[in-house]
Design goal:
- This protein has one domain: NADP-dependent oxidoreductase domain (TIM Barrel, Alpha-Beta Barrel), CATH 3.20.20.
- Helices cover 39% and strands 13% of the residues.
- The chain has helices at residues 19-31, 55-66, 99-113, 132-144, 158-171, 206-215, 244-260, 264-273, 288-298, 304-312, and strands at residues 7-9, 36-38, 75-80, 118-123, 148-154, 178-182, 218-222, 279-283.
- α2 (55-66) links the parallel β2 (36-38) and β3.
- The model has no long low-confidence stretch (mean pLDDT 95).
Length: 315
């Protein structure tokens, strides 16, 4: 079965999404040819009774144990660095990305997942308290030891990503080869952050896109469907997207969706995976019908003329 360019986001598994539903989503994703499952050690501290994370990784560990052989069919992606140190004091108080924390946090993730390695380990939120070279050394060492196959950065500015890469390459270590940020067809007003994001560099920008294209980095996009706002009338599009460019882009998106007999969200997913460079969307849905729609969307091929119209709509 051909792998699909979609990652299943497990952020709310074990907290707001119960175990049975989580297992059903995971099973269907794998049966459909999905490979990548994305989580983090801090997921989802804000929805947990304790105020700390780990619930998502623990649930994934239970699912892996309950499905003998499935580990060989999936790739695990997890992140370290953003777990709170004190309850109700985030993001001011978080573990960060020192060498000792990167190692200890990764060991915790492996323990919760019940595995001896992951396929992709991310430095979750940039940590200006620590030289990026120290973080790059820690990540590269974990690759050298076989604890992770690859490493990436999430919510880092382009200059720190490139500095980490160059340091690793100079040191003979595996460099960052992936970036993970928020990205969708609509763009927020410059200088505005989507409510609840809490990441200064959370949005994928032109510099990161250019860096990824030049250095052949993988791009992963979280919140690609704006939490369902493209298609769910009960979820309005966030006010940070309220500008004339959004109006024009939504008009073209509606036209393309009608011509293809697809939903807005499915067209957005098709636009992302066919983007140059290609982008892997992370689906964070909580219902099977959302997963089914996403699976159809990432396998939808946009005719070149329709892609051009989407690209050229003023945003």
């Amino acid at each position: 079965m051909t792998a699909i360019n979609l990652a299943l986001g497990a952020m709310m598994f074990g907290t707001r999404i119960d175990e049975k539903t989580s297992f059903d989503l995971l099973d269907r994703f794998v049966d459909a040819g999905g490979e990548w499952i994305d989580t983090a050690d801090c997921y989802s501290f804000w929805a947990s009774d304790s105020g700390f994370g780990g619930q998502s990784e623990e649930l994934l560990g239970r699912w892996l144990r309950a499905r003998p052989g499935v580990r060989d069919r999936v790739k695990l992606s997890t992140k370290v660095g953003a777990e709170p140190l004190r309850r109700d004091d985030w993001p001011a108080s978080r573990e960060g990305l020192s060498a000792s924390v990167v190692r200890s946090a990764t060991e915790g993730s492996l323990r919760r997942l019940g595995v001896d390695r992951v396929d992709l380990l991310w430095a979750h939120m940039e940590d200006r308290r620590v030289p990026i070279e120290q973080t790059a050394d820690a990540l590269g060492s974990l690759v050298a030891e076989g604890i992770t196959e690859r490493v990436g950065t999430s919510n880092h500015p382009a200059w720190r990503v490139e500095r980490a890469r160059q340091h690793a390459l100079t040191s003979g270590l595996r460099p960052v080869d992936s970036v993970q940020h928020s990205y969708s067809y609509l763009s927020p007003r410059p200088g505005r952050v989507v409510e609840g994001q809490n990441h200064r560099f959370g949005m994928l920008d032109d510099e990161l896109l250019d860096l990824a294209a030049e250095e052949s980095l993988d791009i992963w996009a979280y919140t690609p469907l704006l939490a369902g706002a493209y298609d769910n009338p009960e979820k309005p599009i966030d006010d940070v997207y309220d500008h004339p460019g959004t109006t024009r882009r939504l008009a073209v998106l509606d036209e393309v969706a009608r011509e293809l007999g697809a939903t807005r969200g499915q067209v957005v997913l098709a636009w992302l995976v066919g983007h140059s460079p290609a982008i892997t969307p992370i689906l964070g849905g909580s219902k099977l019908h959302q997963l089914e729609a996403a699976l159809e969307g990432v396998q939808l091929v946009l005719p070149e003329e329709l892609r051009r119209r989407l690209d050229e709509a003023e945003g």
